[in-house]
Design brief:
alpha+beta, five-stranded antiparallel sheet, four-stranded mixed sheet, 9 strands, about 25% strand
Length: about 190
Amino acid sequence: MNSKITEIFGPLNASDSEIDKMAYSTDASRIRGEVDMVVHPVNKEQVYKFVQYARRGHMDIVPRGAGTGIVGGAVPQRSVVVDMSKMNRITEIGDGFVKVEGGAIFSEVNQVLEERGVHIPLVSEVNSKRTIGGMIATNAVGLRVFEHGRMEDWVEEVEIVDGTGRLAKLVGTEAKNVCGSEGTIGIVVGAKI
């Protein structure tokens, strides 16, 4: 185990065990890849520190939401998999918006919003465990795309850690440009939708 990575994430949130490597070697596409290590950030500061460290060490990083993608976007190639599932909190609910961490489960966010009489109408019968970060990365659509649009139509702000290790808050067109980028612009650590 890499001591610097353990220092960043703690011993419970970093693993190079064979069982974890096997579990994270594929997503719903069933395409197989190779995992060097799996990390589970619990806040954006850990993502920020790790990306800076990984950049200096020329490590390949693959961000992963729920692993529900069917085109292999979260398949590692001798990579460190950054599992965002522990960054799943709703951080603010305002008048006409919600702020969430990148690993927040879309159906759970919608359930909280529905209790307040609103919801985001990107309905999918296929998978209820999609993460907001993953939906942004793929520019997800619902069953009624012509009526309700794509994820980019709902995103107001995206907070990312880019490949240089910079934490950036993007708004407007810049935020929409992250939608569909498949993690190549940065790791989504937060969003306002």
